[in-house]
Amino acid sequence: MCEGPSAAPSPDWVAEAESRGRQVELLPADAAGRVDLHALLALLAGRGLNHLLVEGGSALLGALNDGGLIDELQTFIAPKIVGGAAALGPVSGVGTALMAHANRFTLRRLERYDQDVLLVAATADAPWWNATEECDVHGHC
Length: 141
Description:
Blueprint: H1 11-19, H2 37-46, H3 58-66, E1 72-77, E2 105-113, E3 116-123
């Protein structure tokens, strides 16, 4: 079973990846021994990458949510039921037990694609999303 990205890959793995032309960045670990996502996003921002599409599993999305690192949601909702008692939800992590403590988002747009709906929401706590005039999801008014 995959435990997720490691902050300490083996030297042999790094050498193999670099021998295939891959660039390897060694980042600090978080408390769980995984890549510190704050450090990763800071590295990417330092390289001019200010937008990141994350279509990850529930562990990655949960870690981003727990760290307060999600500033926009683009979520498809379909009129289907899947899962079961043991099925993973879309977001794991620590989460919150009370609605009052949940990360808040502001609905910006709804789009229909046949029977599916795309919900676009931006974090309610980021100042660039709190403009009173109508803006698109990137803050362009």
